[in-house]
Amino acid sequence: MPEQPQPLLSVRNLTVAFPSLHAVPPAVRGVSFDVGREKVGIIGESGSGKSTTGRAVMRLHPSATRITADRMEFQGENLLAVSERRMQAIRGHSMAMILQDPKYSLNPVMTVGEQIAETAILHEKLSRRAARRRTLDMLEKVHIRDPERVMGLYPHEVSGGMGQRIMISMMLIARPALIIADEPTSALDVSVRQQVLTILDELVGANSMGLLFISHDLNLVRSFCDRVLIMYSGRIVEELPANALDKATHPYTRGLLEALPSLLHPKDRLAVLRRDPAWAKT
Amino acid sequence: MIEVENLTVAFGHGPRANRVVRGIDMTVGAGECFGLVGESGCGKSTLLGAIAGRVKHWQGAITIAGEKVGPVKRPLAQLRRQQMVFQDPFGSLHPRHTIDRTLMEPLRIHGIADREARVEKALEQVGLPGRFRFRYPHQLSGGQRQRVAIARALILEPSILLLDEPTSALDVSIQAEILNLLKDLRERSGLTYVLVSHDMAVVAHLCDRIAVMQDGVFVEISSRDAMIRDEVHHPYTRMLREGSLGYRPAAAVPPG
Question: A270 touching B, CB under 8 A?
Fold first, then answer.
């Protein structure tokens, strides 16, 4: 993999531990990766630490969480050292996060238009009028027909797919350099999923952003991303170009691929993953 | 084993009634696995519910194992014949009942004797060790809970299992275990399955025939082989099939 000259995000030896009365191992242990202006996928099963990694980069964990790293730099800035105030300026402005389910992550008591414009007013210091224009423009970019009408709706009045497009427009309105998308399409139907991904792909490409795409869906990540990190038990066990996922060598990645029922390669029985405690150590 | 004729399910009355299932005909042979694929709100779970006896205001005809059943007041002996497994094992098991109590309940309702032995046998069938009997659901993993849900369905010795997205809430590796278990159970005891899923790959893995449902009707019934070889015709079926293969950059975005 040719190293890019200046990655947007550079993480070395990141460890995230949640304090507990019991001796539990850290949720993320010594993770290192870079994200440039590309689409990087993180694949893992529940509890592998993929969302925890994404949230640690955004510094969204409760303050008691112990986050340590040799390096966690975003556009040359040390994310571990910056003040909370500075972090608030970074979040939403140069780094934004798309969450899984628009039903729970949009504010239910604000209209769609108000919530999208809020980002632009806060971060871009736009006037209400300018923010409104930008909102309309943004809703058009995510292919929403009749944006004037949609702006006045509340989140419960829109469908799941439309809600996710609204969230994308809210996250992209300040033109961030990096988007972290945590299972952005898992709550959506197949047909809507294609549309939302196409929009995300278009916008990320057009504005040459970096995308960290967190997902459990191997087929999706394989076809959508440029590069894939595979996480198991808080560690990155393998890193591959997305189109070479079939050539994975780590037994966990291989196990995941073989456990997946496939239309193109039907098999009588699915291989059952035998977990090796050594994977969590190395 | 299951014959459904012109089945219509409507919620509400009069002109504002919402017809969720609209004139479905289907026949499932004994020992067959019949797949139902469709997106949210297409009526697939409602159709399954009508067969199970959960959804009670339908019109049309349902015949199960040669016996005609009505929308209401099915005898216990009939209800025992088909059992359901639900999507989310976190929601479908009572959090304050032990596994033992969960498995005993259907036996008690149906007045079946020899309960101890049956509970042990059901756990064994789904590959759970006997010591899990006196645990609570929160002490089990997602895959283990789904095994309990399957054991609860099997304990009444039904001839039909109605599976409503049985692996959607599970990780890939756990999904493989449950799919293998379902396959083994069917081969061993000749059960008939109706499997509802939104994942074409899962349905094609398990089912002999696949019905694609949209807006309360079947748009296409295809064989497993036709689905695998891409010999399906309806545009909606093609869309679902391609969607399960991953992302296609060329996909056009219709405004909406």
Answer: yes
